[in-house]
Amino acid sequence: MAFYQFKSEQFIPADLETVWDFISSPENLQKITPENMGFDITTDGLPDKIYPGLIISYRVKPLAGIPVQWVTEITQVVDKHFFIDEQRIGPYAFWHHQHFIEKKDDGVLMKDIVSYAPPLGVLGRIANWLIIRKKLNEIFGYRSEAMEKLFGKK
Q1: 80 pLDDT band (50/70/90 cuts)?
Q2: What structural domains and CATH numbers belong to the chain?
Q3: pLDDT digits 0-9 by tens, 27-44
């Protein structure tokens, strides 16, 4: 099984509490996900804030409009510092996403580390080279633009 990491950083000119309140609300994920992903949260009655053990299910259309079920669990939360989500059901053999925020003098530095393994062995490695890493760049690029629209740009 091939293993990869994707890393992203973004400076947000807002206070720590405001950024944390936004990213720790499950409902806001849809606001920062590209429309072409067909992202739809299917969990009923989501809480206002994430917590360890929270299970969230989604329907996404990452390739060619084909719907895929994705279920993640929030495994760790340290208030106003980081949280981790892990795939329980979905398209990857392994998915572990760390979300960090750090207070800076004039805003917040947000960092993401996505560790993942595509399914299907050699075919998954080829898919990563041809599609997956480009898709992750696209998704996080969109998210960066969405966060700039919401919070401004330095």
Answers
A1: very high
A2: 4-151 (3.30.530.20)
A3: 999 999 998 888 999 999
pTM for the full predicted model:
0.93
CA dist 23 to 52, 56, 101, 111, 130, Å?
15, 14, 10, 12, 30
